[in-house]
């Protein structure tokens, strides 16, 4: 069933809590939700690292754009992978979505959350410094397409309230 509302798309660096927030907002508001990375894994029947190994990051970014386009037409809330803005096709798609929410978080917290996560090819064996460098390369692109930026140092309820207030006030 297709939704008549513009989807809320959660962007931000890996480990900020996009999936957790998306699930919370979905359950609280009886809206459909998809985690784009999980959707890609389901559709391709491979893990993200397996996809990276088979077709490289550029190939993954092409799949990401293809599946983002599908999901924009079928889900109310979409959480994206941290590197969604690295692919030009996805970046262009997101520039045309009005409800893009940038979920941000302190880099030290992110590092602790993701440093041992084997499902994140761009985080494997990274030092805090190199992870921070990657984060800094993405900040301007997140900022360019985000309708609003929120910090994940708030509770899920506070984040949801802030987002809904901003979306309904403009």
From TrEMBL:
The keyword Transferase applies. It is found in: Cytoplasm. InterPro entries: P-loop_NTPase, Shikimate/glucono_kinase, Shikimate_kinase/TSH1, Shikimate_kinase_CS. Its cofactor is Mg(2+). Pfam families: SKI (PF01202). Substrate binds at residues 37, 61, 82, 138. GO terms for biological process: amino acid biosynthetic process; aromatic amino acid family biosynthetic process; chorismate biosynthetic process. Binds 1 Mg(2+) ion per subunit. ATP binds at residues 15-20, 120. PANTHER family: SHIKIMATE KINASE (PTHR21087), SHIKIMATE KINASE 1, CHLOROPLASTIC (PTHR21087:SF16). Monomer. This is Shikimate kinase. It comes from Staphylococcus lloydii. The lineage of its organism: Bacteria, Bacillati, Bacillota, Bacilli, Bacillales.
């Amino acid at each position: 069933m297709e939704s008549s509302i513009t989807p809320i798309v959660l962007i931000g660096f890996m480990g900020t809590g996009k999936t957790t927030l998306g699930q919370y907002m979905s359950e609280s508001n009886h809206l459909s939700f998809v985690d784009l990375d999980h959707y890609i894994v389901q559709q391709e029947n491979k893990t993200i690292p397996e996809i990276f190994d088979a077709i490289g990051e550029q190939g993954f970014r092409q799949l990401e754009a293809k599946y983002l386009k599908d999901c924009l037409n079928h889900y109310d809330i979409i959480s994206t992978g941290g590197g969604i803005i690295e692919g030009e096709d996805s970046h262009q798609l997101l520039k045309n979505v009005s409800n893009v929410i940038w979920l941000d978080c302190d880099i030290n917290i992110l590092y602790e959350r993701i440093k041992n996560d084997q499902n994140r090819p761009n985080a494997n064996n990274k030092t805090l410094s190199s992870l921070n460098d990657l984060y800094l390369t993405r900040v301007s692109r997140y900022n360019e397409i985000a309708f609003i930026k929120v910090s994940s140092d708030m509770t899920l309820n506070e984040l949801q309230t802030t987002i809904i207030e901003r979306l309904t006030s403009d």
